[in-house]
3337_t:CDS:1 (Ambispora leptoticha), 147 residues
Amino acid sequence: MPPRTRATTSSFFSNFFSSKLYAVVGASNDPTKYGNKVLKWYIANQRPTIPVNPNETTVEDLQCVPNLSSIIPLDAKNTSVSVITPGKITKQILEEAAKLGIRRVWLQPGAEFPDCGEFAERVGIDLIYGGPCVLVDGPKFIVNSVI
């Protein structure tokens, strides 16, 4: 399966931005890391956001959870996940998301792992991957979305 590029994923972006909650896996308190920049982007765009990182208790003054399973209450059908983790960790996150029924996941650049697209399709996840970044591409697609 080819990467989902900007030209082929407008429906994926629309679905992604129709969620009521956004989990940022790999959120960080370090302002130089993309896990922090991506989290701040969701906050700046007034999206209900929860940081996910097993090593933090709060990030940007938001209560942090260690994993997706710790989001309570979880409305999987209305949750989108941005992933900013090394590829070797990302597969575990996709497995957890699938188990929980979360279908909308965006792998930020660098979070991919080999065959991530095929894996996501097999477990029923609508995956944005292969280059698009919420910091660059998000503004184009968030405009028409509704919280």
Q: What stands out?
A: Residues 2 and 92 are 21 Å apart (CA to CA). The two ends are 31 Å apart (CA to CA).
